[in-house]
Amino acid sequence: MKQSVQSKIKKVQIKTAHLTNYYHENSGGVSTSLNNLLAEAERSRRQVRLIVPGERFQIKQVNEYGKIYYVPARRSPVFDRRYRLIMPWQYVLKNSVVRRILSDEKPDIIEVTDKYTLSFIGAMLHRGFFSSLGRPVLVHFSAERMDDNIASYLTGNKVGKLFANLFMANYILPSFDFHIANSQYTAQEFFEAYEKASEFSGWLLKKSHKFFKAPSIPLQERIFVCPRGVDTKFYNPSRKNAEFRKKINQDLGLSETAKLLLYSGRISPEKNIELLPELMKILCADEKDFRLLVAGSGPKRDWLIKQSELFPQRKIILLGHLDKETLANYYANVDVFIHPNPKEPFGNVVLEAMASGIPVVVPNAGGVLTCANSENAWVVEPTPQEFAKAVKTVVEGEELAKLKISKALETVAENSVEKAVSRLFATYDRIYEIFHSRFSAESTRESIDSVKKFAVGCLIGLIGIERCLNWF
Questions:
Q1: Is the pLDDT confidence value at 329 over 70?
Q2: Are strands 58-61 and 66-72 parallel, antiparallel or unpaired?
């Protein structure tokens, strides 16, 4: 039976549908990764569908195998208004827009990269509220830790941590069949949450998993780690160019001897942005002319502008959002890339900087350690003092920098877009196989149990009839 199920699975061309609110033209890692997935879909001949928020309904055929559905959505009322949010009523209600899309596409796997407004899709399908869709495999992709987000935006105390643990263990975990994380750091939240929720109330944990109809598969077999990849054809050391470096200096009004540091990413609380001005206070006391360039935008942009005004002119320069081409040229033509966030889920920008052939300074914690280590980067305590010490070491030690860059490029080669997406597609295939093998086995067991119950019922009935006849 098991062998026939697996052979049948191999013949199926799996179609995946990916829903997320973290997708807009200037967004970071999630958008980049999904765009890479669409590009690889054509090369791998796999059907991939994106369902994302937009200003109006629109269907974009990216290539023969990849398609994007833009669902009308309003901007987020809090935190970061650059993002739009698909709300629950856009998929819960019958004939709603997301339901129509899913009904038309009938994907084999539905992947949700969201813990908030889109997450109820898993619970809804598990509870049988969308039976016309059949029973696709439900996957939750974790691109960030909920406990870190609550600590950054709401509260960092024990209550916030407990709420995140209970929410993840009693709702997110059982609402989906499988979970994929972009790093071991992100994946670890599932195990931590499950353990804490068990300690808090094993009864509640058991009841919630039963209510949401979580699959009877061991937790460790339901969680996978698939790190993101980088486009090495686009981000690479060949972009290093003396003329472009000269142009940067001229455009920004800097001297040729200036040492350029670059931060690229969201300017938001969870990114530990507060470290940047403190770092520059230390570097301003150095005889070298250190300058910090900040590429990106976000809710703390105005705060950082005010902080930059406290420094000598143009010590901290906010570049705003840079298009992909310009950012790639900046990567390859600055002196040091810095990333201050010790709770980064993965860190696409770190991998992009490494691919561009420049020294990288990162914290000794978080998802950045998926690719960064002491051999290919400067890995230090996330304090202004340690970051400043590392930056000075980089600019003063040319031979060490060359050695670490060489090691970084080896790491990048193992984490190219092609290899990363290939690993992800292989994970989808594995998940699909596990689900249908277990699902078929469970269905068979349920059928056998039903037959047993029917047979027992018939037997009891016959015995009762026999006794009645004997009585007469």
A1: yes
A2: antiparallel
**Residue 450: per-residue pLDDT:** 44
Instruction: For residue 374, give Cα distances in angstroms to 51, 390, 392.
Output: 39, 12, 16
- Name which residue leads in pLDDT, 452 or 393: 393
Per 3-state DSSP, the chain is made up of helix, strand and coil in percentages (nearest 5) of 50, 15, 30
**Residues above pLDDT 90, as percent of the chain:** 79
Helix (H, G, I), strand (E, B) or coil at 117: coil
Tally of CB atoms within 10 A around 470: 7
Using the structure block, give the residue that is written with the tokens 């060489």: 406
pLDDT at 469 over 70: no
- Predicted confidence at residue 442, as pLDDT, reads 53
pLDDT for residue 13: 82
Q: Show the DSSP H helices in 215-323 as ranges.
A: 242-252, 275-283, 301-308
* CATH 3.40.50.2000 residue spans of the chain: 2-229+434-452, 237-415
String of DSSP letters for 166-230 = HHIIIIIHHHSSEEEESSHHHHHHHHHHHHHHHHH-HHHHHHHHHHTT--SS-GGGTEEE----B
**Angstrom distance (rounded) from CA 308 to CA 276:** 10
Per-residue pLDDT for 11 more than 80? Answer: no
* Pairing state between β 74-75 and 84-85: antiparallel
CATH 3.40.50.1000 fits 2-229+434-452, yes or no: no
Does residue 245 sit in helix, strand or coil? helix
Instruction: Give CA–CA dist 94/340, Å, rounded.
Output: 45
CA distances 232 to 240, 330, 333, 373, 409, Å, are 14, 15, 16, 19, 9
pLDDT tens digits, 180-207: 999 999 999 999 999 999 999 999 999 9
What DSSP designation does 47 have? Answer: -
CATH topology of domain 237-415: Rossmann fold (3.40.50)
Do the Cβ atoms of 328 and 239 come closer than 8 Å?
yes
